[in-house]
Every structure is written in C-alpha cells, then in structure tokens.
Design goal:
The protein has 186 residues and is α+β, with helices and mostly antiparallel strands. It folds into two domains: 57 residues; 104 residues, Ribosomal protein S6/Translation elongation factor EF1B (Alpha-Beta Plaits), CATH 3.30.70.60. It is 49% helix and 24% strand. Strands 1, 2, 3, 4 and 5 form a five-stranded mixed sheet that branches. The longest helix is centred in the first third of the chain and has 56 residues.
Length: 186
C-alpha cells in the first residue's frame, strides 16, 4: 500500500509558507521603519516647539521685569534727573543741604556752598554752585565727587581747583545741576 500524503490545501503548496512568512516579516520591518521615522520627526518638532516655548518664556520674563521696573520709581524718571520743587527757596535749601550732607559723609572740614544765580525763568533751571571744603585725602575727594554724580539729582562737576595744605586738600569745585520750580520765578 502506498502511503498517502496529506492533501495540500487547495492552491497552497507547503514550500510557499517560508516565502509568505518572509514577506510578512519584510512588511513588518518596513512598517517599523516608517513609524520610527515619523516618531523621530515628531520628536524634532516637539524639541523645536519646546525651544520656542522657552524663548517665549524668556521674553515674557523680560516683559514682566520691564513692567516691574516701569511701575517703580526708576532711574529713568524725570524726577530723578530734574527734581520738582515748590519754590526757588526750597530748591536752594534742599540742594545745598544735600551737598553739605555729602561733605559730612566724607569727613571734609570747612564745607561751604555758594549759590550762583540759576539760569532760566520757567521750566528747567540750571543752578551753578561753588562748593569748597578741606578734604583729608584724595580718596575722600573722589568719594565726594562720586556721591555727587550718583545721587538724586545728579550734580555735575564743571571745574575743580585743588591746593595741597599739609596732609589735607583744599578744594574749590564748580557744580551744575538742573531742577524745576512749580511756583515762583527763579
């Protein structure tokens, strides 16, 4: 008796199975590569969006900082550079007092401030002063000049005369500063 082989399924040959499996495997690999490429593209886009988001956050923080600075009495306000006084006498007293206070801070001896007539009738006036004092050292003189320029309002040295008297320095300084007066004439 002859051995019978199992009958193949109609149209299916047993040698086709490895070919079909190979095609399925090849299709799965191609599908994987396509998905991998798409995920890489999406990751790049996500990183680009995150970079733009960080940049936008930086701009937002800068804007918030600017709003905070703008809301405060910052150095760019007009009152910092050109203060407003009620009348000329108040301007003279406050400005001379500020200069004399700085003299005291640096321990200068014999401080004096001579007020020259301010120029201008309305709006912004320029005051000319001559400040004299006896400074203990060059360091004290430089500190005094720095405090004048950095204070409110800034006082601008226009001339300086220094004479050595023993261990001390006798200084005569021409100063200019600007201010506004609300009432009265200069």
């Amino acid at each position: 008796m002859k051995q019978q082989r199992p009958s193949p399924i109609r149209g299916f040959h047993p040698m086709m199975l490895p070919g079909i499996m190979g095609l399925v495997l090849l299709g799965a690999m191609i599908y994987y590569l396509i998905l991998n490429q798409q995920s890489q593209t999406l990751l790049k886009e996500i990183k680009a969006v995150q970079a733009k988001l960080e940049e936008a956050r930086g701009h937002l923080q800068a804007l918030e900082e600017w709003e905070r600075v703008r809301g405060s009495d910052f150095i760019w306000t007009l009152s910092r550079w050109v203060p407003l006084f009620q009348n000329p006498l108040e301007a003279r007293l406050k400005l001379e007092g500020r200069i004399l206070d700085i003299f005291r801070e640096v321990r200068a001896l014999e401080p004096s401030v001579e007020w020259k007539s301010p120029a201008g009738e309305k709006g912004i006036a320029q005051a000319r002063l001559v400040a004299k004092g006896l400074f203990p050292s060059y360091e004290a003189l430089l500190k005094w000049l720095g405090e004048l320029e950095e204070g409110t309002p800034p006082v601008i040295p226009t001339s300086i005369e220094i004479r050595k008297e023993g261990a001390r320095l006798r200084v005569s300084t021409g100063l200019a500063l600007y201010f506004r007066v609300e009432h009265g004439t200069l």
